[in-house]
Write a structure and sequence with these properties.
It contains 3 helices and 5 strands. By secondary structure, it is an alpha+beta fold. The protein has a 3-stranded antiparallel β-sheet with strand order 4-1-5, with helices on one face. A hairpin with a 2-residue loop joins strand 2 and strand 3.
Length: about 100
C-alpha cells in the first residue's frame, strides 16, 4: 500500500517528510490513514522512487549483490552442463558414424 504523509513521521526505520509518498504494509498504512497522519495513494511519485532508490542500505546492497552472484553461478553451472551434454552427444554421433 502506498501512502502520502500529511505530517513529518517515521515509517519503519526511515524518516519521511511531509507530503512524501512511501510504501508501507497494509495494516500500518490503514492505521496511519485512520489517525489522519497520511492519505492512501495509488502509486509512488517519480521523485519519491528516485529518492528511495538512492537510500538503499548497505545490507540491501549486499543482499542484491549476493543474489546476483548466486544467479550468475547458477547460469555458469547450467552452461557448463549444456556444454558437457553437447560434447557427449557429439562423441556418440561420431562413434555411430564410424560403425
Amino acid at each position: 500500500m502506498f501512502i502520502r504523509t500529511l505530517k513529518y513521521m517515521m515509517v519503519g526505520r526511515t524518516t519521511v517528510a511531509n507530503g512524501k509518498t512511501v510504501k508501507v504494509n497494509a495494516v500500518e498504512g490503514k492505521e496511519l490513514v485512520a489517525k489522519g497522519y497520511a492519505v492512501e495513494v495509488d502509486k509512488l511519485d517519480k521523485e519519491d522512487v528516485d529518492a528511495n532508490a538512492e537510500k538503499l542500505s548497505k545490507a540491501e546492497l549486499a543482499k542484491i549483490a549476493k543474489a546476483e552472484k548466486a544467479a550468475k553461478a547458477k547460469a555458469d553451472e547450467e552452461a557448463e552442463e549444456r556444454a558437457i551434454a553437447a560434447e557427449e552427444a557429439k562423441a556418440q554421433a561420431d562413434k555411430a558414424t564410424k560403425e
